[in-house]
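Morning!

This is the sequence you dropped in the shared folder:
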Amino acid sequence: NYYIPGVDLEVIGLDTNARDVGGLGGDGGSHGAAQTWAQCGGAGTIQGFLSGKQRAGEQFMDQRARATPAKTALIMQHYDGGIGASYKGRFEAANGGRASVLSAYGHAHDQQCQGSRARGCDVILTGGGAGWQGGAFFGFTAV
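The structure's back. Tokens below.
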């Protein structure tokens, strides 16, 4: 995480790879992560490790939400599918509304506002920069 006092911004990154262990390396233990699975004890062991990393990140996010003096917080992680909006709400609840909260994520290769547009966009799918097929818009989002 980073706190940038000059602009009252807190940036928090979370590891959420536990959400897609079967997709690690592109296709999990079949090819892309086969060597990792073999070295680390298989999908179950990797799942347990990554789930622990995700929980630790979530606990850290909760602690930062309670303690940050920032006026704006940006939560970043990889996956779409509702987790971005969930993290935004979780941070807001722990923060007591002291900060404006943005949540940005990718995975799907597209650019979409998936939240409120009252002040720009607060839940942002910004996965279009990787050049993968699919999605309608390519590029990045500036916050």
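Headline: Residues 2-130 form one domain.

More detail when I'm at my desk.
O.
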